[in-house]
Amino acid sequence: MNSQKIMNEFEEYILTYFNDFQDSKLKEAMLYALMGAGKRFRPRLIFSAVKDPYKAFPCALALELVHNYSLVHDDLPAMDDDDYRRGKLATHKKYGEALAILVGDALLTESFKVLALNYQGDTLKKLVDLLSSYAGAKGMVYGQYLDLENEGKSDISLDLLNEIDHYKTACLFIAALKMAMVLNHDEANADLYQALGEKIGILFQIQDDLFDIIRSEEETGKPQKSDLKKGKVTALRFKSVKEVESELAHEFAKTFDLIERFDFDTTELRELLEILKRR
Predict the structure, then answer these.
(1) How many angstroms separate the CA atoms of 169 and 260, rounded?
(2) Which letter does DSSP use for residue 23 in this model?
(3) How many helices (H) and strands (E) does the chain have?
(4) Which residues does 21 contact at the CB level (< 8 Å), separation at least 6?
(5) What 3-state class would DSSP assign to 143?
(6) What stretches of the chain adopt beta strand conformation (E)?
(7) Of the four listed, 1, 22, 45, 262, which is most buried by Cβ atoms within 10 Å?
(8) Residue 61 pLDDT
(9) 3-state secondary structure at position 265
(10) Is the confidence at residue 139, as pLDDT, over 90?
(11) b/e for 216-229, b at 16 or more Cβ within 10 A?
């Protein structure tokens, strides 16, 4: 599979989806939030785990719509209060808070329409259940609640950090792989898809915690040490930079071993994990 070709075509697929939307500031702001410097890691994860990536385009778009809605709302003053995202002004700083809220609402709502337009029957039911479960109050949104509830507190535990990382970050990675599972008709291996999504999601979050400390604003797209200054619950609240780097190396090795347990060609999955490791 030509990964770059797939991703280029996926970008075109996103833009084409919005062709029949009314021209307005809302549409402009939605595309501003959705397009640009994002890594599209969750769509790439789906594509690397399915037999036919093109059939997975609607799943990948639905997941990106949810992911980017969450970022738009995360950046709002009432939540993380970030002025920049991916090296450019956050949506609310460019378009105002009211429109940013509507952008998030619209992106989230549209995600389920994408699935409804492209799948049917039992497949549609399973995909909607997965997305709503892992993105909603039993998944990502619950993680956001825990994150906000414990911001600035000193009496936090490593168990709480692990819980926040699972819900806030790993849940959408699990959703990506379980969507691939549904498209592969491979529910017998649900535990394996779940475990890999959990592993990759946690690795992704720990890397972000580390980058907040060791990388510049130019590299991360936001001020250095911004999470620590806000009192966020991150891995660096409990461990040194060297300890976190050592943990990452150990967990990446375990994740590569986990990938080998799948019974399909895992070349794309392994290559994607290498990209994550080197980012």
Answers:
(1) 23
(2) P
(3) 15, 2
(4) 27, 30
(5) helix
(6) 84-85, 88-89
(7) 45
(8) 98
(9) coil
(10) yes
(11) eeeebebebebbee
| Contacts of residue 186, Cβ cutoff 8 Å, sequence gap at least 6 | 193
> What are the structure tokens assigned to 217, written together?
């604003």
- Which value, to the nearest 10 degrees, does the dihedral of the CA atoms of residues 105, 29, 115, 182 take? -100
φ, ψ of residue 226 in degrees (nearest 5): -65, -40
Burial classification of residue 171, based on how many CB atoms lie within 10 Å of its CB (0-12 exposed, 13-18 middle, 19 or more buried): buried
State residue 218's pLDDT score.
67
196-251 pLDDT, tens digit per residue, is 999 999 999 999 889 888 877 666 666 666 666 676 778 888 889 999 999 999 99
Alpha helices in 18-139 (DSSP H): 25-34, 41-49, 57-74, 91-95, 97-118, 121-135
The CA dihedral of 98, 103, 109, 112, to the nearest 10 degrees, is: -160
- Exposure string of 90-106, with b = 16+ CB inside 10 Å and e = fewer, is bbbbebeeebbbbbbeb
pLDDT per position as a tens digit, 116-131: 999 999 999 999 999 9
pLDDT at 219: 65
pTM of structure: 0.93
Q: Which positions ≥6 away from 93 have C-beta within 8 Å?
A: 75, 83, 84
Q: How many residues does the chain have?
A: 279
| CATH class of domain segment(s) 3-278 | mainly alpha
